[in-house]
Specification:
By secondary structure, this protein is an alpha/beta fold. It contains 14 helices and 24 strands. A four-stranded mixed sheet has the order 22-23-1-24. A four-stranded mixed sheet has the order 2-15-17-16. Strands 4-5-3-14 form a four-stranded mixed sheet, covered by helices on one side. Helix 4 packs parallel to helix 6. Bound molecules: shikimate-3-phosphate (S3P).
Length: about 425
């Protein structure tokens, strides 16, 4: 599906953000490995989370759904009769591998053509160190992955790549291992797994850069409320910032400090936003965000240590940096090249079509801010985040913008169009 974006006269109103994708994956997985029932409210309806849910069902986990919540009957994982299809979801394949490598049966995990190009050596290496038996295509690099579950042992693991998925994979494996694991993080990545393990009664500590996880843990099912997805909220935050006279109240958004670096970047650029009603639900901070139009955003420099905190929002920063005053420089973001698409190449190529002055670098980009962008036909590269970024970019363009191949938005945010329509944006599908 391709869309033409029709801007409203004004962008004003309230938006409630659906459940967080990262946290929903974890709630399903923790529920599956815990004794008893886990009740999950406000779970993400994203395709990625449906991939996790389907894999867990194939592994014998009973999951009941109704309109308000979902019940996971945990503690009974068994061998799947068929391969496990993780779809487009890196979180599904990497975190589930950490669980399956410790379960005494045979598993094969695969995914779509994008997932089958994404590096898995980053999880295979630590899992082999733990005594696991796991194989990947192309000399242990890519999916499909084959796993023969075994008893594992804890390890000392220094993370070379800042990745919450790798960290979480090792944490899940350690829950079933003998001894303890110490993970040393170079830069802090999102800590949803650590928080949820604690919330389910598990043992995990943080000492400086080290995360210490006890082995052989027994967890108990819980009631979990999933906060709104910060990354989904970011598209509304960005739209309000750049749309003349806009004002949006974005409600019930997860505000975990390991996810919200984007807000700090916006503040440095001079953006107008306010956080209201902060509280904690199920071990995660949440709140509302009020954003209004900022006529003059300033270019910023983003340093490598900030990158893990804003990893999914960097292409969106490129969008509004295209009209900020001065230069924006992003460094140390090579990880973006191995996401659902090569996001450095994708966003540079597509923003150039809209007239932006963006120079692609090996580990980021340099953008020289302009006054306006122009209309053009652009493409999502089949990547949900690139599709949503380009729709936001259309608000900066003087002519008509057509974004091709936007069905992929379902991967993380199936309510995207409905939510934008509710604040007056129209889409013509072609
Ligand atoms: C995620 C972690 C990040 C992020 C992805 C979701 C998670 O990936 O880009 O969208 O749920 O842990 P990496 O940890 O591989 O950077």
């Amino acid at each position: 599906m391709d869309v033409i974006i029709k801007k409203p006269e004004r962008l004003k109103g309230e938006v409630e953000i659906p459940g967080d994708k990262s946290i929903s994956h974890r709630a399903l997985m923790f529920g599956s490995i815990s004794e008893g029932e886990t009740k999950i409210f406000n779970i993400s309806k994203s395709k990625d989370c449906i991939s996790t849910l389907n894999c867990l069902r194939k592994l014998g986990v009973e999951i009941e759904e109704n309109e308000r919540f979902l019940i996971v009957k945990g503690g009974k994982i068994k061998e799947s009769e068929d391969i496990l299809d993780c779809g487009n979801s890196g979180t599904t394949i990497r975190l589930l591998s950490g669980i399956l490598v410790a379960h005494p049966f045979y598993s094969v995990l695969t995914g779509d053509s994008s997932l089958r190009r994404r590096p898995m050596d980053r999880i295979i290496k630590p899992l082999l160190m733990m005594g696991g038996e796991i194989y990947g295509r192309n000399n242990n690099t890519y999916p499909p992955l084959t796993i023969i579950g075994k008893k594992l042992k804890g390890i000392n693991f220094k993370m070379e790549i800042p990745s919450a998925q790798v960290k979480s994979c090792v944490i899940f494996a350690t829950i079933f291992a003998d001894g303890e694991t110490i993970i040393e993080e170079l830069y802090e990545t999102r800590d949803h797994t650590e928080r949820m393990l604690k919330y389910f009664g598990g043992k995990i500590e943080k000492e400086g850069k080290n995360i210490i996880i006890k082995g052989n843990q027994k967890l108990k099912g819980k009631e979990v409320w999933i906060p709104g997805d910060f990354s989904s909220a970011s598209y509304f935050i960005a739209s309000a910032l750049i749309f003349p006279e806009a004002f949006l109240l974005i409600k019930n958004v997860g505000l975990n400090p390991t996810r919200t670096g984007f807000l700090k970047v916006i503040e440095r650029m001079g953006g107008n936003l306010k956080i209201l009603n902060q509280k904690e639900i199920s071990g995660e901070p949440t709140g509302d965000i009020e954003v209004c139009y900022t006529e003059k955003l300033k270019g910023v420099e983003i340093l490598p240590e900030e990158v893990p905190n804003i990893i999914d929002e960097i292409p969106l920063i490129a969008v509004f940096a295209s009209v900020a005053e001065g230069k924006t420089i992003v460094k140390g973001a090579k990880e973006l090249r191995v996401k659902e698409s090569d996001r450095i190449k994708a966003i540079s190529t597509e923003l150039k079509k809209l007239g932006a002055d963006i120079e692609e670098k090996e580990d980021g980009f340099i953008i020289e801010g302009l006054k306006k962008l122009k209309g053009a036909r652009v493409n999502s590269w089949g990547d949900h985040r690139i599709a949503m970024c380009l729709i936001v970019a259309s608000f900066l363009a003087e002519g008509e913008v057509i974004v091709e191949n936007v069905d992929c938005i379902d991967i993380s945010f199936p309510e995207f169009f409905e939510k934008f329509r509710s604040i007056g944006v129209n889409f013509i599908t072609i």
